Amino acid sequence: MAEEANQPNASEIQPDVQAPSSTSTTALDELRTRRKDYLKYQSETQAAALEGRASFLADVVTWEDPVALSDGVGLTYRVYAKSHEVSQAVKALRENGSSDDVTRLGVTGSFIYIHGGGWRVGNLDSEDLTCRRLCHTLNLVVFSINYRKVPEHPYPIPITDAKAGVLAVNERYISTLSSLPVIICGSSSGGHLAGLITQAAVEGSLDIRLDRTALRGPVTVHPDHVPIRFKKSYNSYDTNDSRGEFQGMASNMRNGVFGMASIPQDIIETGQAFPLWGVFKGHPQTYIEVSEDDVLLDDGLCYAKALEEAGVEVKVKIRKGDHTWWLKKYDTDEGAMVEEDFVREVGLLMSTQLEELSI
């Protein structure tokens, strides 16, 4: 995939997989600078898309609700509705409004989205355009979940935060929309969180109904702690480290991402830490997309194999290029094409009548 001349290099737009390297500042200071640069870049590319090829998405209505965490810290999640009329019907659910008022407006489901960023960067704004496209095209009510970031908030805080956000949207909205399907989705490290939340829901430790799962370039395992049955097929950290745009991503993941996550060694080979160590029987139908040059390619492929072996219906799509590159190129034709295709795959996952939605 050709880069546009005015775009920054891979290290500037992919800080989630870059290990801090400066000798003049601490690793945390460098990471904080990269967070600001990353969010600035994401904001600019999405704003450019909304002013141009994706201007139709500007009409999507959004608002944020609080999540009260057990330690007294407050986060928010963001809700997306296709129109003002839909937003009013959805907001009314918080005050015992009728789900019939939502469904009569053609809403097709509840969609929980968890952004990526190596558990270290990203927020509700960084993948906003993806949520807008899903909401607008499929008339989904989308709930974008936030979580505190490592290393300031190490394991298991990102996981417990994400679970708290999911439970909050379920209590306020989703549980009332009982006739509509519920889909959970995550990109990269958000895919890791979505995978763990799906497992918790299946096992009954998290009280929420999940009917479908969609994962985009997910992290499912630590590359040095792969289950024995997958070790022979888990090779992409070696084969893809020098391929694609993001050179040296394997070492950056080990040293930068996993190093800062601070996952305890005594649970690193359990389903508490990584989805690939979990139990797969009873999982909902799942869609997984991975990239052929990504070091995380086999994270997704091995996870799909584990689901298939447990009798779960799985669809896998292998895209060209490197790790979730389309999320950093919202303002390009190539990025828009991938996003449009992803929305179509979500529609298929829901068994929606796509021809009626003009996708």
From TrEMBL:
Region (Disordered): 1-30
Record GO terms (molecular function): hydrolase activity
Highest taxon listed in the record's lineage: Eukaryota
Biased composition (Polar residues): 1-12
UniProt xrefs under InterPro entries: AB_hydrolase_3, AB_hydrolase_fold, GDXG_lipolytic_enzyme
Ranges for domain Alpha/beta hydrolase fold-3: 112-321
Pfam families: Abhydrolase_3
Keyword annotations of the record: Hydrolase
Coiled coil residues, start to end: none
PANTHER family: AB HYDROLASE SUPERFAMILY PROTEIN C4A8.06C (PTHR48081)
Protein's UniProt name: Alpha/beta hydrolase fold-3 domain-containing protein
Organism field: Arthrobotrys conoides
